[in-house]
Amino acid sequence: MRISTFALIVLLLLFSNSSILYAQDSSNDFGKISLSVFVPDNDNLTSSNITTLESKVHRLVTTNGLSGHGFNSNFVIYPTIEIFDEKLVEGMKNIFIVQVEFNLFIMQLSDKMIFSSYSKSITGSGYNKENAFRNVITKIPMRDQQLQSFLTEGKQKILNYYALKCNDILLEADGLIKRDKHEEAIALLLSVPFEASQCYSSAQSKAVTAYNIYKEKQCSKLLVEMKAAILKNHIGEALDIYAKMDPYTKCYKSANKLILDRREAICKQYLHKAEVAIASNDFFNASNFLMKINASTSCYNKSQDLLQEIEYKITYAEKLQYDRRRIKEKEDMEMEKYTIKAMKDIAITRYKNQPKKINFNYIFK
Question: pTM of the predicted model, to two decimals?
């Protein structure tokens, strides 16, 4: 249904006192229906109570199989607390009592639509107003059947939205790709949940296309930077740039040739990096550096000696952990897994670089 209680909703991507939960280390949440958790400013709630309420709503979302990170920020879940009555009961210790209506809404922002709503009357008490409202928050029933129905309804309407708007999302992504906004396109496409099965498949396919274009352009850019570093004889800097390159790009072969042509200077850099890593007991990265040293270089024998030294230094437990990391790294480098992980990393970076707060200004009728 369309919002009737508000005359206007203005979405400003600005920093404010209002808070919203955004993606952190959340790559596993891609594919889930995603809601931004938002608590509007409330004169009756302290910052501590707002944080507690925000955490509770976030927990409600995640325990019901949804993502509370709000990757797309087009869907938001937010609570309101309206006071019906408040009174002070005097005694040996005064008790502050509040009667409120607790409301939850799931809103689709771009079309200003409420997808689902929930309401419950709650009475809270405490030695002061802050404690009384904290008591209200603790009484919000996480397992209430009506609350579960609220989430189910919201979830279904979000899936209906993706079924209806899928072509629009794909066309928007096409426009972003044409304007070389590949990261934005990938982030948009990865926000489509897997439960929107038909749209999800189309979005994933287009995301791979966007990523393939993006990675080739990024590789070409990095190759220019790498050549510039080599011309300045900044071999360490060149190796750092080389490490950022996608091994499945076309220009990666050109980068490999640059490395091979300067293998003597480069082997000394890898040897130095390995020695620094060994000194800090970072044996995994030390081994990685040493195994990149070309067998035809003068420092190859030294690299083998250091690898043997690492074998002696690490404990049995560390060896098991090292082997597991090596296996996982090998699996992650399989092309399909590498592409999926790389796309998720791009999307997460995109969301992290967005403003961390959203300010919703509500003007009541």
Answer: 0.67
